[in-house]
Amino acid sequence: MPDLWTAPAGTPADLTVLPLLPIPAGAHVEQLIWHGDPAGAGTAPLRLVSFDGGPSGRVVTLRLLRGERLVADLRVRHGAPRDESPHRLLRTDLAPGVSCTRAFTVTAGQTTDHVPDAEPVLSTPALIACLEDTAADALRPHFAPATASLGTWIGVRHTGPARIGEQFLVTAVIADIRGRRYLFDVHATVDGRRIGDGQVAQTLIGH
Question: Who contacts 140 (Cβ-Cβ below 8 Å, separation ≥6)?
Fold first, then answer.
């Protein structure tokens, strides 16, 4: 396979067994975003391509494709995984599975009306803000003094409408912890109907 650190974007890489991704020695998968095996892609072979390289030369984004359809994105970082030692920014230890659920009601200020002759619905930026705030709320009760958190990554799909006055529920569940960085699985529903899902990350900071 080509050297992932120098190959241009779109260069194919061998992928023989899905669980054994061809990650170079001395590197690790920092993040995996699974988009799902696309319907209608048939039995086209899976292939892994180099999509983008970070300016530092230490991070490469890979894309797993079935035919031309996207299956997953992987971020690979050169070097050892981040230190998992306690950061002392929380009063209590948290673990994957800790969750928070909040209820929101759609207001006029949260809607978009750019579609002609269509009823205003919850905008994507407003949905993302609620997803991020709910993730932060899972952490806030555990903050040590002078601790805060910032949203540092978003990977969200907006899949359904929510109208003015409708209540929607947002749930954020800790999926992974890397030092000060907490990755959450998030989803939002209206009366049990999913209107959005994905992942967000919150990173702890000290004042």
Answer: 149
- Residue 141, token pair as written in the block: 């009760």
More confident residue, 44 or 54: 44
What percent of the chain has pLDDT above 70?
Answer: 78
* Cα–chain center distance at 151: 11
Last residue of a domain, one of 28, 44, 78: 78
20, 50: one domain: yes
Cβ atoms of 199 and 181 closer than 8 Å:
no
The secondary element (H helix, E strand) that includes residue 139 is helix 124-139
How does pLDDT run across 160-175, given as a tens digit for each residue?
Answer: 999 999 999 999 999 9
| Residue pLDDT, tens place only, 74-117 | 788 887 766 555 568 999 889 999 999 999 999 999 998 777 77
Residue 107 maps to a domain: yes
Are 16 and 69 in the same domain?
yes
* Contact (CB, 8 A) for 107 and 70: no
The CA distance from 76 to 31, in Å, is 7
Q: How far apart are CA 118 and CA 139, in angstroms?
A: 38
**Looking at the 3D structure of the chain, how many domains does it have?**
2
Judge if 74 and 103 occupy the same domain. Answer: no
| Domain containing residue 185 | 99-206
